[in-house]
Amino acid sequence: MTASKDEPQKDLGTATVEMIEAGGRTLRVAHWRLDKPSDHAPILFFNGIGANIEAVAPLAERLTERAFIIFDMPGTGESPDPTVPYNPFTMSWTATQILDQLGVDEVDVMGVSWGGAMAQHFALQHPGRTRRLVLVATTAGMLMVPGNPAALSKMANPRRYVDSKFMNEHFMMLYGGMTKRPGSKEDHIGRLKPPSPRGYLYQLVAMLGWTSLPGLPFMNKEVLIMMGDEDQIVPLVNGKILNTMIRNSRLEVFKGGGHLFLLTHADESVASIRFFLDAPSTEAESRRAA
To answer: Which residue among the candidates 79, 92, 113, 272 is catalytic per the annotation?
Structure first.
């Protein structure tokens, strides 16, 4: 397994970008502040379907007190196309290979939408490397309560990545929530790079038949579930299901938040993430550490 550094890219701020070979794949990895001392575990972030690293860079830039790690899935962003299909098991293992190369042992795991499912699987498959878990606008997999059919059809259409007019026209249906920061919608759209057809297809196929429900009662991590009450893609009830099934979880609902409330409610979201991750260790966590 080898790694090589890329030149800095303007949409990634202060990130270090590398092409890393892990799990038989070459993946584009970005990380922030890994070379700086911190009292906090790094965040390992799993992105939404088809989304590239740049879409999450503003969040990584704001969490200045901790390291942040994210990678483009095969065929998304600048990661080469996958040669064979993958699933949550193989990609979670691949993520551990990336962490090994970066010299990172334990992480706080975070995922949004499709990536929230990946984050759940990672925490269940690799509990020894997971400290806490943050799940954003996500579900338990195939047993989810579906969203608005019109919004889901737009979400499944890759035109939202290649046609800015299409994205702009359907932005409210896709993501909901009125942004409080002028220009943030345009900034988000400008950061997106279309996935390859194969990359997008393989991401869709990766979760077919997958559900975390049988494993959730055995999740022994502290979990924050963040949901928007106006999400047309992943209705709030899915967060309530996760909250019911995970005994050490708490549910936070963002009023007026759609599927992209991390963007539209950025200040509140960052404050919630910090409050949860910085909270003192629970008795259960202390016992596990001992």
So the answer is: 113
Map tokens 């007026």 to a residue.
256
- The pair of structure tokens assigned to 277 is 């991750």
Beta pairing partners, 222:
132
C-beta separation of 27 from 12 below 8 A = no
Count how many Cα atoms sit within 13 Å of the Cα of residue 179 in the half-sphere of its side chain: 15
DSSP 77-104: TTSPPPSS---HHHHHHHHHHHHHHHT-
Model pLDDT for residues 26-62, shown as the tens digit of each residue: 999 999 999 999 999 999 999 999 899 999 999 999 9
Residue 188: per-residue pLDDT: 65
Place of tokens 């997971």: 130
Closest to 30 (Cα-Cα) out of 203, 191, 221: 191
Q: Is the pLDDT of residue 181 over 80?
A: no
Closest CA to 120 of 108, 106, 107, 109: 109
Q: pLDDT tens digit string along 218-230?
A: 999 999 999 999 9
Positive or negative torsion for Cα 87, 210, 242, 214:
negative
For residues 119 and 203, the answer to whether their CB atoms sit within 8 Å is: no
Query: Is 164 assigned a catalytic role?
Result: no
pTM, two decimals, is 0.89
Task: Count CA atoms closer than 13 A to 14's CA, side-chain side.
Answer: 13
